Amino acid sequence: MQESGGEADAYTRARISLGAVLALDRSETLYYTPEHDDEGNTLRAECRYRIDGTPPPARWWSITAYAADNFLFANAERRYSVSGENAPLDNQGRFMTLVGPNAADTDRSWIPTAGTGGMRLTLRLYGAGEPLQRDPGALAAPSVKRLDDCP
User: Fold this and answer.
1) What are the E-state strand segments in the chain?
2) Does an H or E element contain 12, and which?
3) pTM summary value
């Protein structure tokens, strides 16, 4: 599947652009992509979830919600993710965000979804600490809890 000179062919480039994350060395970035909540249920865009945890040991981090087609959910609020720059911390140094089709109007850490179909989340860490680079499985991952009975 490669053209001469080591260049990827058009099919390989298309497959990577649609389904892969940017392949950087783990010293630069780590990606975590849960497709299930803490109870093992598949994430769905019509459900509401609370994600909370401590900020991961990284220079910069974000959590983004994607539709089943691996693209961002279209939404009038133009909210697609939360990060260490905008996720408010409580007095214990923990963050909390909501993901789903609706939330309180005052919740600035809400990530809207379309209200139907599949969903996945991506936690990105840029410049993760050395221990996490050596053992990515040691991350104290944020919890993903479904808040309601959804259809």
Assistant:
1) 29-32, 49-53, 58-67, 81-83, 95-100, 110-112, 119-128, 143-146
2) helix 10-19
3) 0.81
Q: Taking a C-beta distance cutoff of 8 angstroms, is the pair 49, 144 a contact?
A: yes
In a domain, 13, yes or no: no
Q: Is the pLDDT of residue 4 over 60?
A: no
CATH of residue 120's domain is: 2.60.120.600
Residue 9 included in any domain: no
Question: How many Cβ atoms from other residues are within 10 Å of residue 73's Cβ?
Answer: 20
The answer to which of 45-54, 58-67, 98-107 has the lowest mean pLDDT is: 98-107
The owner of tokens 């860490």 is 125
Tokens encoding 78:
């133009």
Domain count, the chain: 1
Look up residue 18 and give its amino acid: L
Asked if 111 and 80 count as a contact pair (C-beta separation under 8 A), the reply is: yes
- pLDDT the model gives residue 53: 96
Which backbone phi and psi does 42 adopt, to 5 degrees?
-60, 135
Give me the domain span that covers residue 35.
23-146
